[in-house]
Amino acid sequence: MCAFEENYGDSNKSGKSLDMLDPTTFDIRVDDLEFFEKEVASFIPDEIFDSHAHWYDISHLQTNSEKADSFVETVVGYNMMKSSIDLWMGSREHNGLYFPFPVKHLDCSKANRFLHEEIRTRPQSRALMMIRPNDDPDEVETKIREKGFAGFKVY
Fold first, then answer.
1. DSSP per residue over 109-140, as a string?
2. Inside any domain, residue 50
3. Stretch 5-21: mean pLDDT, rounded?
């Protein structure tokens, strides 16, 4: 279990946990920018491939009882990620290996459909399908082939 899920089940903290997944709430400070320029920028290439990243729709991470209009934008895909990263890393090309954000009650079908739609416009990126241990192996294999997933992640 990750730190996010440890707090997610706590009704006093769960809204706060979801806020952590909303890039529109990220605060890029002057010292962040200075640190990046001084310590990191010189060895970050113009083209980045992130080998472990999540694209998700925040509404897929909420249970029915939690659904609220607290998020202006729930989609965290390429456009949201790119605009967030550009704030502190400048305009670099960004691709990667993406998969849904895992939570116990995730609707894997919705999350995988969302990811498939996002990844279709990013030919240099790859996606892993999120599956459960009890999913039918033949159905998983069919979806991987049909949708072009690079593989799967069991959660």
1. HHHHHHHHHHHTT-TT-EEEEEE-TTS-HHHH
2. yes
3. 55
pLDDT value at residue 4: 43
Helix (H) or strand (E) holding 80: helix 78-89
Q: What range does the domain containing 63 cover?
A: 3-126
Q: Do residues 97 and 119 make contact, with C-beta atoms less than 8 angstroms apart? A: no
Name the average pLDDT for the chain: 85
Residue 133 lies in a domain: no
Contact 98/3 with Cβ under 8 angstroms? Answer: no
Instruction: Kindly calculate the radius of gyration of the chain based on its CA atoms and give it in whole angstroms.
Output: 17
In what helix (H) or strand (E) does residue 48 lie, and over which residues does it extend? strand 47-54
Residue 10 C-alpha from the chain's centroid: 22
pLDDT tens digits, residue range 74-108? Answer: 899 999 999 988 998 888 999 999 999 998 889 99
Q: Is the pLDDT at 3 greater than 60, yes or no? A: no
Name the domain count of the chain. 1
